[in-house]
Design brief:
The structure holds two protein chains of two kinds. Chain A is of the alpha+beta class. Chain A has two domains: 3-111, Beta-grasp domain (Ubiquitin-like (UB roll)), CATH 3.10.20.30; 117-133 and 140-251, Orthogonal Bundle (Fumarate Reductase Iron-sulfur Protein, Chain B, domain 2), CATH 1.10.1060.10. Chain A is built from eight helices and seven strands; from the N terminus they run E-E-H-E-E-E-E-E-H-H-H-H-H-H-H. In chain A, helix 2 runs antiparallel to helix 6 and helix 6 (195-208) packs across helix 8 (231-243). Chain A is elongated, with a radius of gyration of 20 Å. Chain B is α+β, with helices and mostly antiparallel strands. Among the domains of chain B are: 276-411, Succinate dehydrogenase/fumarate reductase flavoprotein, catalytic domain (Flavocytochrome C3, Chain A, domain 1); 483-613, Methane Monooxygenase Hydroxylase, Chain G, domain 1, CATH 1.20.58. In chain B, 36% of the residues lie in helices and 15% in strands. Chain B contains 17 helices and 21 strands. Chain B has helices at residues 25-32, 38-41, 53-64, 103-113, 120-139, 172-190, 255-262, 326-330, 340-352, 369-375, 377-395, 450-471, 483-502, 508-523, 529-549, 561-585, 609-612, and strands spanning 7-8, 45-49, 68-72, 90-91, 154-155, 165-166, 193-196, 199-207, 210-218, 224-228, 231-234, 267-268, 273-279, 302-306, 323-324, 364-367, 404-413, 416-417, 430-432, 614-619, 628-633. A five-stranded mixed β-sheet of chain B has the order 1-21-20-12-18. A five-stranded parallel β-sheet of chain B has the order 7-3-2-11-19. The longest helix of chain B is centred in the last third of the chain and has 25 residues, at 561-585. In chain B, 59% of the residues are buried. The chains are: A alpha+beta, B alpha+beta. Chains A and B meet through helix 1, helix 2 and helix 3 of A and helix 3, helix 5, helix 6, helix 11 and helix 12 of B. The complex binds flavin-adenine dinucleotide, iron/sulfur cluster and FE2/S2 (inorganic) cluster.
């Protein structure tokens, strides 16, 4: 296959950045999208040019590193698929493909397609855990968890922290990511004691990190490669209200 | 003197494990350790490199204990460490099924599964701790699979007869790692852990023979920084990427371990590599990694190739009696469920006979037609739906309609830095945890045991043993400009400058690929003296060419992914040579190490306990220089060596 790529190039955080055109003549439909960029990079290096920087690691759709907006869609056109799992058979010979980094105020571009997602870690630091020191855990079977709750918790815990939801959101909100963690922990009995404290500190940190507010466009869930259900955001809102207006947040 | 003219040095001995009854060794060791006064802990600095299950768990736990911890990973977030990709599950001797499991049985299975090349004391401790791990993870909110009664579900995994594998769909590693990651983030928030993401350790700092810090490169700005501490933990994962193609994440590397090895840490059993039978085959030269398809598929899929050489009909056109279900044929009692090493080698054999399938001839069918006929498509879908989807996404083929094609791929490295029972390497003050050490799996790791080991090391072992070192050692202050520190920084800068200045005609990846081919051809599933000797000629040649002809664009003062790769490949080019030598010297077959010269009449691996019942720990003497072999004799007081048989 022959493909024309228009790729966002930006040297560093201060550079303004621009789209640059490239052609790959010998793409194969069995390649993943990242392998296509690998092939292009090999050529750029040999031609004495700077290869395209992009984040990736597992290339199995689970680490959440890869992050490219392809033709305007975070992770590209295939449903429930990260860009490392997207294969070129989804495209046609002769296509022109635009490749850009996540674009969101809270995710500044570091270089080319690499962005800084450390704000996600900050949100987790603000309460995305159960406070249990190593060694202090009770016997695992002392607390049964209804299967339905465990399954719902798992469906939310499935989030890979990639940030596509933020990139897709017109407001740059991380509500799907936030709701996913709150639902994961909130569905489990182990997550109850800190539930209403957690929602407030995490939401506050989310807002302070520069993520926007949620206006229920649903774009996040459409882009999410792990199909995190939109109702985790309802859970988030419900818990937040209960914690604040409802006064469930423990005092002091 | 050439590299292969190694000499044998003094034996290496584990002095840390208590002797006496194995059931109480860990208990007695815990009682025997010196404790660090809680008030002093804050003043004690510990560096933990790596945030996978081993490193993440260790950093979080040491932070909770009050130590001053500094943690590093090369990804942009600790949550992305390669442990995230583990699928199948984690073993624990909970015996919730009442099916006869026990600590002793898990211990026994692991020693036997490792083909009698692991240390009994360590393995027993691992089996004991396995139970606490599940408790800890459940308390963290890890959403394990559950039964309708609300209790934890388990499954049997990897050729054992009890059901002791806990799992979270096909994403167990992800869920366990998120638990450790969250515990770590909690400590970062509490101020006990300083986290350096996108930082790569490039050198170990040693002062007066002890590990006292590391040199790291900020992968965004290129800044080289030094970090000093009282002890250093390496939890930097496995080195399967020496083969270029493996199921490991692209960034997995040996650099941290290799830098420490060059400074005196012994590297044990480097040739012990696990090759996983069920991976998606290579589709072309562009291939950048291989994807594992869960082992569980072999519970219902049947493995076959055409009987006739060069039969290129579509699988559906090949009648039943012209198919060779070779695993069922060769191993009637275990059939498709034989252990990983055996299934892998059998697939290689039929491909060597030119009966392999798919465009490259390097593949065998894994067929679900019978399972679909027997159980119905919905049942198969419920069990394996997500795997089938993943397969289709990658290959464009629908496994409900046409058999999957699979081929073995490098998956895990049992070898690693030598450690004693305390997980301390031969460099005092440097501890090694998780896949990075050599300790618990011998010559072959059982499925679902790596996650267990990583968390055991990180949550429960290191936090105890490292305290003993700290409490019983007086460490002088190290000045930031001490000669040893400056020397380490100088070495890092010089290496980077050299890599950038060669400006040759070949990319880093082209060297990595070539090294991978050499390793796969000569140090892969089947090894021969002749092949290994050939590799030992080819690798130094390739390394010489690398240092004269690699092209690394850009500068050191920016995000430069080619430079990162170049440093890693440079180290793989040294490690690969040591792996081949280790494989050459070990003239027996055991576990994942199959030497063609050492097989039984019917082609199975033949172990040689008389000559090789030891762990081979290598000492570095210079690049390309003959290393020194130190043997740790293995004594089997409890599980007596027998030949494995799966017929
Ligand atoms: C596809 C796949 C599936 C698997 N499934 C299972 C399973 O079902 N059950 C099971 O038990 N095991 C499984 N394994 C094996 C298991 O996942 C690994 O052995 C284990 O997770 C390794 O954990 P670790 O903490 O030792 O290292 P890793 O998780 O690899 O972490 C290494 C850490 O070190 C850091 N690092 C490395 N080098 C440097 C450096 N130079 N400087 C700074 N930081 C560095 C990385 O950033 C990372 O944080 C699987 C492995 C693979 C590849
Ligand atoms: S919610 Fe989905 S899109 Fe957002 S970070 Fe998680 S996995 Fe990515
Ligand atoms: S590279 Fe890991 S999710 Fe894409």
């Amino acid at each position: 296959m022959k493909l024309n790529l228009r790729v966002w190039r930006q040297n560093d955080q201060v550079d303004k950045g621009r789209m640059v055109d490239y052609t790959v003549d010998d793409a194969s439909e069995d390649m993943s999208f990242l392998e296509l960029i690998d092939v292009l990079n090999e050529k750029l290096i040999l031609a004495g040019q700077d290869p395209i920087a992009f984040d990736h690691d597992c290339r199995e759709g689970i680490c959440g590193s890869c992050s490219m907006v392809i033709d305007g869609q975070p992770h590209g056109p295939q449903k429930a698929t990260t860009v490392c799992q997207l294969h070129m058979r989804q495209f046609n010979d002769g296509d022109t493909i635009n490749v850009e980094p996540w674009r969101a105020g809270a995710f500044p571009v570091v270089k080319d397609l690499v962005v800084d997602r450390s704000a996600f870690d900050k949100i987790i630091q603000a309460g995305g855990y159960v406070s249990v020191n190593t060694g202090s855990a009770p016997e695992a079977h002392s607390t049964p968890v209804p299967k339905a709750a465990a399954d719902r918790s798992f469906a939310a815990a499935n989030c890979i922290g990639c940030g596509a939801c933020v990139a897709a959101c017109p407001n740059g909100s991380a509500s799907l990511f936030l709701g996913a963690k709150l639902t994961h922990l909130g569905e489990m009995p182990q997550g109850q004691p800190e539930r209403y404290e957690r929602v407030v500190t995490m939401v506050d940190t989310h807002d302070a990190a520069g993520f926007g507010g949620c206006t229920n466009t649903g774009a996040c869930a459409t882009a999410c490669p792990k199909e995190i259900p939109l109702d985790v955001i309802s859970q988030l809102n419900k818990d937040y209200l209960a914690a604040t207006v409802g006064g469930k947040r423990r005092k002091g | 003197m050439s590299f292969s003219d190694y000499t044998v040095g003094a034996p290496v001995v584990d002095k840390a494990a208590p002797d006496g009854p194995i059931e109480t060794r860990w208990e007695r060791r815990k009682f025997g350790v010196k404790l660090v006064n809680p008030a002093n802990k804050r003043k004690v600095k510990i560096i933990v490199v790596g945030t996978g299950l081993a490193g993440g768990a260790a950093a979080a736990t040491l932070g909770e204990a009050g130590y001053h911890v500094t943690s590093f990973c090369y990804q942009d977030s600790p949550r992305r460490a390669h442990s995230i990709a583990a699928q199948g599950g984690i073993n624990a001797a909970k015996n919730y099924r009442n099916d006869g499991d026990s600590v002793y049985r898990l211990f026994y299975d692991t020693v036997k599964g490792g083909d009698f090349r692991a240390r009994e004391s360590n393995v027993h401790r691992l089996a004991e701790i396995s139970r606490q791990i599940i408790d800890q993870c459940v308390a963290q909110g890890v959403p394990f699979a559950r039964e309708y009664g609300g209790l934890l579900d388990t499954r049997s995994f990897g050729g054992v007869q009890v059901s002791r594998t806990f799992y979270a769909r096909g994403q167990t590693g992800q869920q366990l790692l998120l638990g450790a990651y969250q515990a770590l983030e909690r400590q970062i928030h509490a101020g006990t852990v300083n986290m350096y993401e996108r930082h790569e350790m490039l050198e170990l700092i040693m002062v007066e023979g002890r590990a006292r810090g590391i040199v790291a490169r900020d992968m965004v700005t290129g800044e080289i920084s030094t970090h000093l501490a009282d002890a250093v933990v390496l939890a930097t994962g496995g080195y399967g990427n020496v083969f270029y193609l493996s199921t490991n994440a692209k960034g997995c590397n040996v650099t941290a371990n290799w830098r420490a090895h060059r400074k005196g840490a012994l590297f044990a059993n480097p040739c012990f590599t696990q090759i996983h039978p069920t991976c998606i085959p290579v589709s072309g030269d562009h291939q950048s990694k291989l994807t594992l398809m869960s082992e569980s598929l072999r519970n219902d899929g049947r493995v076959w190739v055409p009987k006739r050489l060069g039969d290129d009909r579509a699988p559906s056109q090949i009648p039943e009696d012209e198919r060779d279900y070779f695993l069922e044929r060769k191993y009637p009692s275990f059939g498709n469920l034989v252990p990983r090493d055996i299934a892998s080698r059998a697939a290689k054999e039929v491909c060597d006979e030119k009966r392999g399938v798919g465009p490259t001839g390097l593949g065998v069918y894994l067929d679900f037609a019978d399972a679909i006929a027997r159980l119905g498509r919905p049942a198969v879908e419920a069990k394996y739906g997500n795997l089938f989807e993943m397969y289709e996404r990658i290959t464009g083929e629908n496994p409900y309609e046409t058999p999957m094609r699979i081929f073995p791929a490098v998956h895990y490295t049992m070898g690693g830095l030598w450690v004693d029972y305390d997980l301390q390497s031969t460099i005092p003050g440097m501890f090694v945890a998780g896949e990075a050490n050599f300790s618990d799996h011998g010559a072959n790791r059982l499925g679902a045991s790596a996650l267990m080991q990583g968390l055991s090391d990180g949550y429960f072992v290191l936090p105890v043993t490292i305290g003993d070192y700290l409490a019983s050692t007086t460490l002088p202050e190290v000045a930031p400009d001490a000669p040893e520190v400056l020397e380490a920084v100088g070495a890092v800068n010089e290496r980077i400058d050299t890599l950038l200045s060669i400006n040759g005609t070949r990319t880093v990846d082209s060297f990595h690929r070539e090294l991978g081919h050499i390793m796969w051809d000569y140090c892969g599933m089947e090894r021969t003296e002749e092949g290994l000797r050939k590799a030992l000629e080819l690798i130094p040649e390739l390394r010489r060419e690398f240092w004269n002809n690699v092209k690394v664009p850009g500068t050191g003062a920016e995000l430069n992914q080619s430079l990162e790769k170049a440093g890693r490949v440079a180290d793989f080019l040294e490690l690969g040579e040591l792996m081949c030598l280790d494989a050459l010297h070990r003239a027996e077959s055991c576990g994942g190490h199959f030497r063609a010269e050492s097989q039984t009449e019917d082609g199975e691996a033949a172990r040689d306990d008389e000559n090789f019942a030891y762990a081979g720990a290598w000492e570095y003497t210079g690049r390309g220089e003959a290393p020194i072999l130190h043997k740790e004799e293995l004594n089997f007081e409890y599980v007596h060596p027998t030949q494995r048989s799966y017929k």
